[in-house]
Amino acid sequence: MAILIIYLAILGGTYYSIAKSSFSYIPSYYLSGVHRYTSLLAVGIGVLLFLLTSFSDPGTVKAENVSQYFSAYPYNNVIYSEKECSTCKIPKPARSKHCSICDRCVVCFDHHCGWMWLLATYNTQILLMVFLAIVSLLLAGFFSYHAKLCLTNTTTNETFKWQEYISWQGKINEAKASAAALKASINGMSTEGKPQKANGEPSFENPQWKIGEAPVRDTM
């Protein structure tokens, strides 16, 4: 139990120090605010699987259940034969072993994991594999990203700089498109305010009178 507490303390302290030093920069130009929650979710799932795996029953053999394990794991009289545990003083089913660290007999004993402080057995191997799969996927993603950088002779800093350049070019193109649309709109408004001739050219003639003809005023 002390090992579990130390392990969780190291994990929690490490995450707290990283979060305290880096969360002030999130969200930023390169990272969105969702990274705060995804990192917490990943650590939370890892801790949950770690606790479930550590505290799950590995298949402890007791006097009350030894008979059912005998039917599930019979002797083959080759590498497993009838034997009694010298510590527990109960018959040992095939594929079982007494763990000197946990001080109990377990079925399908594989090994005692010092990192997670658990017994790797048939009952815990599914949770253990899920935990290792998640950790492996995270490490594989990290490895793939940096392998790509090595193969393309690129640094992380240059990747960020290139993204910044692309974003800057996109903003320039958007500004040019907006300016062109505004100019076209202004030209359209000025054209609509002028009277047009039949051939489409603007006309400045007064429709009420022509040159040389003075308008008649009503003097009455």
TrEMBL record:
Membrane topology: Multi-pass membrane protein
Biological processes per GO annotation: protein targeting to membrane
Enzyme class: transferase
Catalytic reaction(s) noted: L-cysteinyl-[protein] + hexadecanoyl-CoA = S-hexadecanoyl-L-cysteinyl-[protein] + CoA
Bilayer-crossing regions: 35-55, 126-145
GO terms, molecular function: protein-cysteine S-palmitoyltransferase activity
Domain comment (free text): The DHHC domain is required for palmitoyltransferase activity.
Protein name: S-acyltransferase
